[in-house]
Amino acid sequence: MIVGLDMMQTIGACLILPALAVLLTLLFGRWPNVREGSTLLVAFALGSMVFSLLGPVLIGARPSLTLWEVIPGVPLAFTVEPLGQIFAMIASLLWIVTTIYSVGYMRGNDEHAQTRFYACFAIAIFSAMGIAYAGNLLTLFLFYELMTISTVPLVAHKGTDEAKRSGRVYLGILMGTSIGLQLVGIIACWILAGSLDFVPGGLLAGKVEGWPVLLLLALFVFGIGKAAVMPFHRWLPAAMVAPTPVSALLHAVAVVKAGVFTVVKVVVYVFGLDLLNGTAGTEWIAAFAGFTILAASFVALRQDNLKRRLAYSTISQLSYVVLAALILAPLSVMGAALHIMAHAFGKITLFFAAGSIYTAAHKTEISQLDGIGWKMPVTMGAFAIGALAMIGVPPTAGFVSKWFMLSGAYEAQAWAAIAVIFASTVLNAAYFLPIVHRAFATKPAPVDPEHDHGEAPTPIVVALAFTALGSLFLFFVPDSFLALAEQLVGGRP
Amino acid sequence: MPSLLSQNLPALQVVLPLVAAPLCLFLRLPRLAWLFALAVSGAAFAVSIALIVLVQQNGAFSYDMGGWAAPWGIEYVIDPLDSVMLCLVTGIATLVLMYAGPSVEAEIPRRQIPVFYVLFLLCLTGLLGMVATGDVFNLFVFLEISSLSTYALVAMGRDPRAQTSAYRYLILGSLGATFYVIGIGLLYMMTGTLNMEDLARRIPEVAETRTISVAIAFLAVGLALKLALFPLHKWLPGAYTHAPSVVTAFLAATATKVAIYVLVRIFFTVLGPIEAFQTLPATVSETQLVGVLAILAMMSGSAVAVFQYNLKRLFAYSSIAQVGYMMLGISMVSVTGMTGGLVHMVNHAMMKGTVFMALGAVILRVGSPDIRRLDGVGYRMPVTMAAFVLAAFSLIGVPGTVGFISKLYLVRGAIEGGHWIMVAAVLASSLLAVIYVWRVLEVAYFRSRPAGAAPVREAPLVMLAPMWVLALANVYFGLETTYTVGLTEAAADYILNYVPGEGPTWEHPLFEDPHGHGDGHGTGHGAGHAPEQDAHAPGVDP
Amino acid sequence: MFETVLGLYNYWIVIVLMMAGFYTVIARGNLAKKVIGLNIFQTSVFLMYITMGAVEGGTAPIVSEEATVYSNPLPSVLILTAIVVGVATTAVGLALVVRIREAFGTLEEDEVLALEHRMDRGA
């Protein structure tokens, strides 16, 4: 461990550091350079803390930190396990990148209330770490809701009527599903099992069977609104009014991944694959995820606004994870875990590119992007890599996760799932490749020199190049993520 | 002399503010009266802490007022539920009084300020007496002490509508209290006793009579009026809206809670052995009336709150909904449900205390609780509004706040009992809370302050400190529930499994009979049950 | 039947007074009359207590050589307290009525309500 912290203290540090960032941001609100410098410093420290836990987890350690009992039998507890480690690594790593990006973006666009922005951002990361390392459902739910609340001000950041309306939709759907469905599921688990701990093999295994399992599963899958399974997906397009760094880190990585992460976690540690495999009817819930994949892809095809198209693509990609988890084969669950990682790098690149275009060229619609690739070669090059990752073409990380999903589906003989994945791959290509084609192969519309532009500010370009390369890198060297995913399902299947 | 002191703690708890109240009149300086009242309520809080420790160590105990043995004399009984309630009421009173200084000086004419504190302490006395006493008629007296002072306190509001609100409160409150007296009169008619313990023992013999049924009906309606259970809540919004801010904060956090406490006490201990509560008329199969009314209260209160512009009125309607939550938990008649109801009583005191304190600070600085005048107030009074935000999240039931703990137990109780409609109602009402809370937050944080508006200062520290103590209590007790859930669960268990005679140990554990009269003096002595009576008239037992 | 109607005449008086008072509180529009109605309502309760303490042929509960049957004094004592409470309630109620009259210039409930409604909308 670094700087002499034992593992419990490291977990504590992972939680305290983002909270510290909130304080520092508020404290140094008047001096932007100090404010962002300290955020960046904390982000680096957090990253090193999180990665220092990777080694012990890979050799099978499950360090945990139990604070105190909130209600009898249910403490506030944190445990590092493989899936959480994957999520924590992605969130902390990309926080560093996004902080760099934000500096360029927020200053480049002269946004208001930047202190509130950075503070809420840090709270969101704090809750992401809490979700990743949560040791029981109550702790997880606590940070889940904190994340919802902390991100609403980011969505409504602009303060325009449209932003406020979106904020309401966002809060309404996320709070509505979590209070209305997920909370009931959690309390039902509490009654059935007497505790809310995450147990390898499933907390509920042997405690309940038949249709109540199905009902509970539905409460969780739909109650975790952040996973955006239809019909509870509308908050995500609504959230696109937020500044791009928010869309990038939160609505492509932290928030939405918190959703699918929770779904996978609940499937694996609360229900257990065996319990669900023994329950008839789970495929009906999986069918909702499959429908979401296809329907969201079709909607994405028709969007001209770049960020909205990306948002619908996200909805579809999130349901990949849900579907893969619900195929209930170890291989596909591994695929689900890996897709959390692959999609994070791919989608954040795409959003960074969208923000880069907005900052440099003030363009938001796809139809305006004729020939922009030659003016912003790095941005659009990274965009192309991100698009390939979404489609699942080698050599990008997207291919790895899709491979595992398909093998899992094949093993479980889930032919419908395979068909859905193939169909949506075609659709992915259909809505991403035309953008790349338009950017590089069409002639730009003539512009007056006053509005001419080059690349975006350096911090932005650096950030998006980094994530694009990350996407490639993880195709060639996915070892640690693979190993973590294997441990999630209890060894190489 | 600690032992003599601790012997008389239950009496001291009530007598202290009662004796102190008129003294405020002699302190002509407003600030002096304020500090004196604050000191008194602080002392009362210390007494309640001592009592809670005593009950934790020794279990429930009783205290004979003036040394007259129960059931002839008036007996004070402190059981787990009582000790929690006493602590809650005195704790809130102390915080509210600390906060009161600047707000009272701004809202109340200077020469009336000492009177204000007199009334405040009298109201506190009444509430504490209602909790501490073990005698149903004595309870009525304290009920009226607190109610009468409350009417006068509400009428001290600046707006002329405060008068009409106080008037309506007086009419309905007096009706409720009179219904209660009729109820206990009928009980007395059949049992010949007014001591709660004694009543509980004698009632089963006469349970089948019509008189007892009528008594139950009168008690239920009278208490429902006092605790503002839908549809008998009409007095509440006006009274909360137009009362001085300090009074609203105090009432919202304590008055309805104590009324609910009385309902629980009467129906689950006094009438517990005949299961009176469970037999209140059923309209829907298997769900008795109170549960249905509670659901209606939750839904209608929250729904009406969504459309209010005056924030004090908005949160007054929210209070009606919250009373619904508490009654819902109680109506489940299970330990989990009762725990949920009781813990929500404690938790709601923290939430609404904070909310109304914050609104009081806003009124002090901005001058109005109208939502249309609060654009950008979140940046103009950041510290106040941050406390408000915490309490507002607690109202929604965000995890990590006390509201979540309440909901956890309520929903759990409902699921365990198979009351699915109740589950749905709790959740739906929470979602309505999201809407009305968000309306306020959006105005406070996502609108810029109106151009040309006068700059607004932050509230003074004496107001912020107690507000933040309560706001942080919302979070602390949302994460660490040993005291709230632990104590209320013990109380719920005690109340639901109450067996007269096996309940309170008959003597104060430290009580040594100082006057030397015990067994011999019972026959031939009745006792008056009013505090001001001085003649223990001889007579025959009825 | 006859026995129930006339034998319990004291209770019938209680009931009649109670209903009369309650009706006045609910149905009367004049705020002062409501207070009076409340008073009558409470008085009926006083009577109810006193009448149930009375023992037929009993004397006042003062120990004396001749008397063997006493009335129960406790209800009377209780009602002494209740009367005090009732007087206090009436006093506060009437005081409020006076102040409402000063503020609104009327004591009719519908007129007060109309004025209040106007204030609510004005705010």
Task: Please describe what this structure looks like.
The complex is a heterotrimer of chains A (493), B (542) and C (123). Helices cover 73% and strands 3% of the residues of chain A. Chain A has 20 helices and two strands. Chain A has a two-stranded antiparallel sheet with strand order 1-2. Chain B folds into two domains: 1-162 and 230-266, no CATH class; 283-498, no CATH class. Helix content of chain B is 70%, strand content 2%. Chain B is built from 20 helices and four strands. Chain B is globular, with a radius of gyration of 23 Å. Chain C has a single domain, classed as Helix Hairpins (Orthogonal Bundle). Chain C has five helices and no strands. The model of chain C has no long low-confidence stretch (mean pLDDT 85). Classes of the chains: A mainly alpha (493), B mainly alpha (542), C mainly alpha (123). The B-C interface holds B 137, 140-141, 144, 148, 151-152, 155, 159-161, 163-164, 166-167, 170-171, 174-175, 177-178, 181-182, 185, 188-189, 194, 309-310, 368, 370, 526-530, 532-533, 535, 537-542 and C 22, 25, 31, 34-35, 38, 41-42, 45, 48-49, 52-53, 61, 63, 70-75, 77-78, 80-82, 84-85, 88-89, 92-93, 96-97, 99-100, 103-104, 112, 116, 119, 123.
Keyphrases for this structure?
A: about 500 residues; mainly alpha; globular; C: about 120 residues; Helix Hairpins; 5 helices; about 75% helix; elongated
Summarize the structure.
The complex is a heterotrimer of chains A (493), B (542) and C (123). Chain A is mainly α and 493 residues long.
Question: Secondary-structure map with pairings?
Answer:
The complex is a heterotrimer of chains A (493), B (542) and C (123).
Chain A: H1 7-27, H2 32-52, H3 54-58, E1 64-71, E2 74-79, H4 82-108, H5 114-133, H6 137-155, H7 161-193, H8 211-223, H9 235-238, H10 244-271, H11 273-277, H12 282-301, H13 306-327, H14 330-361, H15 372-375, H16 377-391, H17 397-411, H18 415-441, H19 458-476, H20 479-488
Antiparallel strand pairs in A: 1-2
Chain B: H1 2-7, H2 9-26, H3 30-58, E1 61-64, E2 75-78, H4 80-107, H5 113-132, H6 136-155, H7 161-191, H8 196-206, H9 210-227, H10 235-242, H11 245-270, E3 282-284, E4 287-288, H12 289-306, H13 311-331, H14 335-366, H15 377-380, H16 382-396, H17 402-417, H18 420-446, H19 461-479, H20 484-496
Antiparallel strand pairs in B: 1-2, 3-4
Helix pairs in contact in B: 2-3, 2-5, 3-4, 3-5, 4-5, 4-11, 4-14, 4-19, 4-20, 5-6, 5-11, 6-7, 6-11, 7-8, 7-9, 7-10, 9-11, 10-11, 10-13, 11-13, 11-14, 12-13, 12-18, 13-14, 13-18, 14-16, 14-17, 14-19, 14-20, 16-18, 16-19, 17-18, 17-19
Chain C: H1 2-7, H2 9-27, H3 31-53, H4 74-104, H5 109-122
